Amino acid sequence: MTKDITVKDVEKEIGVTRAVLLSWESVLGPFPRNTRGHRTFDPAWLSYLRQAKEKLAEGLDLWRVLEQLQRPGGQAAPSHSAFAPEW
Q1: Domains plus CATH for the chain?
Q2: C-alpha distance from residue 54 to each of 7, 29, 46 (Å)
Q3: Which of 2, 26, 62, 65 has the fewest CB atoms within 10 Å, i.e. the most exposed one?
Q4: Taking the chain (87 residues) in consecutive chunks of 10 residues, what is each chunk's mean pLDDT?
Q5: How far apart are CA 29 and CA 39, in angstroms?
Q6: Which pTM value belongs to this model?
Q7: β-sheet bridge partners, residue 40
């Protein structure tokens, strides 16, 4: 059995804070959670988040990152309209 990768592990591995991860989650869609409701990641998610950080460093915004990267497990990415305010 493999150990779940926690938010704290992701912070150390890719060098972003918990606050940044939570803000990314608001655009990239929900991160996986364990049965206790804690965010947990596998190596594919860690790779995805690392790639997202690299794309952001290249100057892309999160919406462009969302369009360019495939979410782990083939999950559909949320649409822009899911987060757009209804005015």
Answers
A1: 5-72 (1.10.1660.10)
A2: 18, 18, 12
A3: 2
A4: 83 95 89 92 93 94 88 69 49
A5: 12
A6: 0.80
A7: 6
